[in-house]
Amino acid sequence: MRVAARVILTDQQRAKLSAYARGRSVAQRVVERARIVLQAAEGKQDREIAATLQMGRHTVARWRARFLESGLAGIEKDAPRPGRMRKIDSEEIVRKTTREKPDNATHWSTRSMAHVLGISAASVRRVWQAHGLKPHRVEIFKVSRDPQCVEKREDIIGLYLNPPQQAVVFSVDEKSQIQALDRTQPSLPLKKGRGETMTHDYKRHGTTTLFAALNTLTGKVLSQCRPRHTNQDWAAFLRLIDRSTPKDKQIRIIADNYSAHKHPSVKTWLQHHKRFHMHFTPTSASWLNMVERFFRDITQRRIRRGAFRSVPELVAAIDEYIQDHNKTPKPFIWTAKASDILEKVTRARRALHKAASE
Prior knowledge:
single chain, 5-stranded mixed beta sheet, alpha/beta, 358 residues, 47% helix
């Protein structure tokens, strides 16, 4: 058993400590420390003193050691505390985050930055939050190099904001290679304290391609699932749009630059159907096509977490979703002006040229 160091008091020290222990105008912390030292001088061990005074054993041991080291002065005043906390240089954190990379990684983490600067990870996190910095995230982009980018962009946005009278505007595209995936084991349902589960592996049962035409005014969707997405499939979908649209209406088709959309056979068909007018998005700017938003919704809500044992089962699920969507369609409202988008693209190009020259 470990024995605490012995405390021996002089008459003067004992008198002073006794006065502290009985004093009513003395700080409570000094009273407690005086009682600890007096009992230690009686030969009591730390555990015994702690039990008597109802405090922690480590507290008793600390003030025994402090008295043995500094005498009365050691218990009359607290030990000097550390000085002011080191000032965090937020500008340096921002500079290193935006201008430099760590030696062995593609981006900074709070811990790697804290290690380099000799501060806490919490301090780095606070600076990043204050300046809106998120090094762990990457935003995908690509600036269009289409020489007619401005004209095509203004044309399409004009159709969204000011559609022509006596015309129906369709945002059209195909979502290709949708896989009919079945999980290798049954999923476990959602319950309190645990989310729904599914196996990480799956069985492939084939693919389908969803052709969709979003009416930009009403939000309704014309759709067709086909095994492939060739120019023949595209022409077949155009014929479906033709049959489903009143004959007295002009048809404006917004589509991307996929080769099947410009195939000679498709062009020949369009020449015989004068009410069809094609409007192509700029190269690398298919995000201008409003139907892409619908594809995102059907992917997140019906396809990604589904389990399908065959392609017909997948097609039936897609058709059911679109039928339900068309019961209460809600159009997507385009609010961005062509000039605002052009300004952003101009800034992006300027930043790219600057980065390339550095």
